[in-house]
Amino acid sequence: SQTIHQWPATLVQPVGSPLSLECTVEGTSNPNLYWYRQAAGRGLQLLFYSVGIGQISSEVPQNLSASRPQDRQFILSSKKLLLSDSGFYLCAWSVTPQETQYFGPGTRLLVL
Amino acid sequence: DAKTTQPPSMDCAEGRAANLPCNHSTISGNEYVYWYRQIHSQGPQYIIHGLKNNETNEMASLIITEDRKSSTLILPHATLRDTAVYYCIVRDHLMNSGYSTLTFGKGTMLLVSP
Q1: Residue closest to B32 by CA, chosen among B1, B74, B3, B60
Q2: How many helices (H) and strands (E) does chain B have?
Q3: What is the distance in angstroms between the Cα of A91 and the nearest Cα belonging to chain B?
Q4: Residue A16's pLDDT is what?
Q5: Which residues have C-beta within 8 Å of that of residue A41, sequence separation ≥ 6?
Q6: Burial class (CB in 10 A: 0-12, 13-18, 19+), A84
Q7: Which residues in chain B have Cβ-Cβ distances shorter than 8 Å to A43?
Q8: In angstroms, how far is CA A68 from the centroid of its own chain?
Q9: DSSP codes joined into one string, chain A
Q10: Of B90, B67, B89, B80, the residue nearest B110 (C-alpha)
Q11: Is A4 in contact with A22 (CB distance < 8 Å)?
């Protein structure tokens, strides 16, 4: 069966510091991968998605970037965090872009 | 914007069936109805999805009206661990439409009590 992992689970970072969140998927090959952010009391916002290694699509302009160095690894990064980057970051995967997305456990980021 | 309407909250007694309604009056012919739930501080969990026919799996049943303008998620025997926010979502499965947006609304907060 397929599993999706995210780490760290929680993170407290000062404004202006760098960020690296990691997501890995096991039990499947060539998954479609997604990064979402869920701000407190708000819905999910799609940040990035990837259909393959090195292929990244950005949904909204922001202070964040994504990379996919390996087939089942998706990384969310920032060079300098802003207060507004605080939130719950979720990674998800699907077999095709149209099919069911399965979410990871999430990373809660607090920027102070 | 979410294309669904759900009640903000519902209560259910443990062991009873929980019936969560969802209105999606503008759903198009190619759009599926998906249900996810999110337990506090966890990632959303996929529950079930369907197009026209009623669906059942080990977690729940999905009843879609004949005109497809509304649906009901049924948890047959709710437990305390089913307390969560339940999201009803419509999304397109067309193979030539590229990425299909997954838009979560505010959902229904289901509280299962002893």
Answers
A1: B3
A2: 0, 9
A3: 9
A4: 97
A5: none
A6: exposed
A7: 2, 103-106
A8: 11
A9: --EEEEE-SEEEE-TT--EEEEEEEES-SS-EEEEEEE-TTS-EEEEEEEEETTEEEESS--S-EEEEEETTEEEEEESS--GGG-EEEEEEEESSTTS--EE---EEEEE-
A10: B80
A11: no
Cβ–Cβ of A98/B95 closer than 8 Å?
Answer: yes
Assess contact for B87 and B36: CB atoms under 8 A.
yes
pLDDT category of residue B1 using cuts at 50, 70 and 90: low
In chain B, the residue whose alpha carbon lies closest to the alpha carbon of A33 is B99
Q: In which residue are the tokens 């009623």 written?
A: B54
Query: Does any CB of chain A come closer than 8 Å to the CB of residue B58?
Result: no
Tokens of A37: 């952010």
Q: Residue B93's pLDDT is what?
A: 66
Q: Quote the pLDDT of residue B30.
A: 83
Ranges A6-20, A61-75, A92-106, B93-107: which has the least confidence: B93-107
Amino acid identity for residue A88 in this structure: F
Choose among A99, A43, A110: nearest CA to B4: A43
Please judge whether A103 and B106 are an interchain contact, meaning their C-beta atoms are less than 8 angstroms apart.
no
